[in-house]
């Protein structure tokens, strides 16, 4: 396996082997992000596809040191674009047959990351987007409002409701 | 609040470290799209390059032609203007009954010149008028001019023409016209003489369309009065009847241009008269040409064992050259009578075929990064995982199904050539030498069985561009128009190894043979 630097150089030259390497290196991680921002597995696959195409197209613009973070940002932006374009994300489908590899401890209870993902996926689309952008990506309400074309207060209220729903689900899980 | 913060932290920690196995087929889908994009990019580069080349050629030709035509048009315009004025004036003043009687219909108009005018203008105007109304008759052929005392003879134009000659009474006149003229007007000294003559002159044969004063082409040049060739008037009349188009020839001696026309004027007229005018017979006329060709390129394929042999993968030890189509053009410039230089663009693939083999007990793992090798270097195969998933084969068994490899290097070449022209009648033979700059657009390794290729990869560590020396031989058949048809052959030996790897050395060569069309300007 070649170094990431060499792979990026290869991708900038549009080399097939480099693109394959990059995909192999980051596809699992990016698919995880896609699942968080999608309502079902098929959407997540589409997002993964579009995300990588965007990465290959714009890899010349990458200048920072943290390639992982840059890729993540690209994928989140693609997810936002899709969200704005397609409001049908309100239909919640349970994500099945996805096998995650991390566990989180909540109040001395080990929760498999897949369970957490399932909880998020059950949120209404807008709540989910607000919660992800705020809690996971670290954006402010003002920024989220601009991204989702909603007001700051709507963003705050959506976040609050999302937290409440998730809290209830966590409590149920604990019980 | 802390509870909310706790929830955020739980999900944030889970999400940031979360990864899920990518669905099978995701890369295949991606790869198909990327391949199509790459193909589109290559096509775009190719079409843009060709488009720019053609545009440059057209612009070059346009500039060249406009620069050439500018002076000619100006001169022509002046002559037409003066000619028209002269003709109008002469028509008004025409009182030569002899001319009207004897030169009728179409033939008469251009030659119905007032004798006095002709005399007054010291024959200069006569020359101009006739010259202006004249058209070089390039269609009539097979007449040989046997007037061997013409100094300006440089090449032979075989033509048979009818000639109307204008001369003074000092010249020998057909008795009929002279008598009639004398009877009606003692001052009339002009006569139209029509004669069938054989011509041999470089400036030669001028055809006069006298039906209308509509000058189709101003070609007056070295007008020669054939004073010795005046024939009987009966013959003249017959010729007039037979020919609707009368060619005019006046000898230099008769009009005595040295007395009345300056050398510069004579040269200008000569230039107009002959599209291939050569002021000095030894001086070559420069010109552009464009060659367009499409044919077949044959490439070499040499097998070489890598020095570095401790990798355990499939290999392709036997390789041989193959053919592929090529297409290109050259924009050339004739710099002397014999030599021409040209710059062009050529697109072709250097194709190498090989027998794919997977040595027993040597394949211990599959590494798509360095999957196998050819004499060009290592290659990787991107879609092997995909293919194996599709076929559900054991890796080794799956690979053993394959027997063939094909390496396709996509070249765009900029050839700079110098050619030496050898002509014989309508044929031209042109040996040429050149220097080529070759850009390697992309490469592809294909692996498959007898019926198809299933795995696709790329040779690694190839150079972006290489240089080559070329030699070839073109031959053409030159048609009467500006087109030539022929065959182009070109052998290119590249001066660099195509790969940067230390373990492999591959220096390609190719032989091109293709039909060619050449357009001269």
Give the key terms.
heterodimer; A: 175 residues; mainly alpha; Rna Polymerase Sigma Factor, Chain: A; Arc Repressor Mutant, subunit A; two-stranded antiparallel sheet; 8 helices; 68% helix; globular; B: 521 residues; alpha+beta; Porin; 2 domains; 8-stranded antiparallel barrel; 5-stranded mixed beta sheet; 31% helix
Please tell me about this protein's structure.
- The complex is a heterodimer of chains A (175) and B (521).
- With 175 residues, chain A is mainly alpha-helical.
- Chain A is built from 8 helices and 2 strands, in the order ααααββαααα.
- Chain A folds into 2 domains: 1-96, Orthogonal Bundle (Rna Polymerase Sigma Factor, Chain: A), CATH 1.10.1740; 99-175, Arc Repressor Mutant, subunit A (Orthogonal Bundle), CATH 1.10.10.
- In chain A, strands 1-2 form a two-stranded antiparallel ribbon.
- The longest helix of chain A is centred in the C-terminal third of the chain and has 23 residues, at 152-174.
- The model of chain A is unreliable at 91-101 (pLDDT under 50).
- With 521 residues, chain B is of the alpha+beta class.
- Chain B has 2 domains: 66-273, no CATH class; 284-520, Beta Barrel (Porin).
- Chain B has 13 helices and 18 strands.
- Chain B has helices at residues 2-16, 26-92, 97-102, 105-111, 115-120, 124-132, 175-184, 233-242, 252-255, 257-260, 263-273, 384-391, 395-400; strands at residues 134-136, 160-167, 191-198, 206-208, 246-248, 287-299, 315-321, 323-334, 339-357, 372-374, 377-381, 404-420, 422-424, 427-448, 453-459, 465-478, 483-494, 509-520.
- In chain B, the strands form 2 sheets. An 8-stranded antiparallel β-barrel of chain B has the order 6-8-9-12-14-16-17-18. Chain B has a 5-stranded mixed beta sheet with strand order 1-4-5-2-3.
- In chain B, helix 2 runs antiparallel to helix 6 (124-132).
- The A-B interface holds A 1-2, 14-17, 19-21, 23-24, 27-29, 31-33, 35-36, 41, 45, 48-49, 52-53, 56, 98-102, 104, 106, 111, 113, 116-117, 120, 131-132, 134-136, 163, 166-167, 170 and B 3-4, 7-8, 10-23, 26-27, 29-31, 33-35, 38, 41, 368-369, 380, 382, 456-458, 460.
